[in-house]
Amino acid sequence: MNPPQFANSPEVLGASGAAGTVPESLEREIRSIYSRSPIYGRRFPLHPEPLRWACYREMPALSKREIVESGHQSFFEDYAVIERGLADRTFEYENTSGTTSSPMTVIMEDGWWAAQTRRAYLASPILREFADRPHRKCVLAPVGCSSNLCPYEDHPFPHRYFDGTVYLNLSSDPFAFSEAEWDRIVVELQATQPEILEGEPVYLALLARAVERRRVSVPSVRAVILTYGKASLQHGRRIAEVFPAPQVDLYGSTEAGYLFVGEAFKDNSRVIDDNAFIELVPWRDGVPGVHQIHVTTRGREAMPLLRYHTGDIVMECPDGFRILGREGGLYFRPDGSMVSPTDVDLALPSDFRCWHYSLAQTGENRWDFLYVADHTADHRALEGAVAALLGPGVRVNAFRRKSIAPAASGKFALLKPLAKGA
Fold it and tell me: Is the pLDDT of residue 112 over 60?
């Protein structure tokens, strides 16, 4: 049996052993995960003999929904140990949501988030210089976080300054920010003079607008990290106009950590090999080189993940990978060909400018293109360009909006096809 395809560097994974056995590095991680979290042994018992690919393929993929339904407690033999750890801060937690309607609690050992973030920086030529030296960073995150990882809420500045990082949020919804709130954020940004600016692309685009309107600058910024959500070229361009620094696409999730890093919009994202093994799973016929991903975390003590189905899709490119986004955020024309948010970006008229947009399907052949901009675009040209991308018989209506609200999870979608069966 042929081994599955992985996105990792071949040197990191290693070659399969005799008689189709799994490489030692991967087998060692799998057995470590089994020893730490009893949930896996209950789902699929593991024999003591050397692990073969045939057995590996039989291990059921783990979904976010299964974690929610089983409960995070199912990862631990004695959850009282975790409760004591949360009390004395040897463990920490965060709630996250996305593909599921219910929040998922993630337990992390103290220091894990910082360690896997450092490994992500080391894997990036742009961020590498910041990995092991003190630096200042400002973060504008979208998550309504309930843990000590995102200490914003009611803490005044500079009490949101932790280990060189300032969390700018005092609200989980930036569209509720008054101009006075943007005044506060911009002043804190100027006061911090960060070398790194990190955030959800929509939030950073709106921050760029706030900075531009106040006619200030933050020349200290040397790198911009786009994370938490899928970035549009429109976001990247607006951010670059105000913060002219290299942009990094850092992809991951709360539960899995950081998985891919690359230059934004360069299709050269690479696996952060020290953080995870990433299996490439063929997704659909007719779309070669496009894969689901199953993630196996490395060196994780609390809630390690084995063949975790993240729900994200990646495309192989000559210089690495392009993160296409969520499975539900890709559209398939009647002929089976795929449209991704990147395709929408490339189809927009060259003179079109906006701070944010969302292309949403409202009927079989009808779509709404909502955008936030300072000026109304040429709707005829805009609608025609997007309709031509989506296929024959499609009608697109463009609307300029003051804001575009996120989903209930606090996350944004650039492309929103109708759900199957809708």
Answer: yes
